[in-house]
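so my prof wants the structure for this chain in the tokens format not the other one, which i didnt know existed until like an hour ago. anyway here's the sequence
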Amino acid sequence: MSNAMVQKYRLAIAAILLGLYVGGYWAFRLTNSEIWQSDRHAYLMFPYGYGVVLYHLWRPLSYLDGALTGMRFHIGPHRP
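here's what i got, hopefully its the right format
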């Protein structure tokens, strides 16, 4: 296998992994967003337990998402 083919293979794998990373975040965002009645802002709710892991995994995307859309983030349910 030539060096150029190896580079293309690596680039394709990186593009697929990046797509899975962004797609996973987007799917999670679509299914776990809510408007909190107290302040009328949209929040992406990360559940307790594994949600903390997801929060840290997707932290770079959440900063970008918050800057572009104003989305806010919360681990666990809101309490009045």
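also thought this was worth mentioning. Residues 26 and 37 are 23 Å apart (CA to CA).
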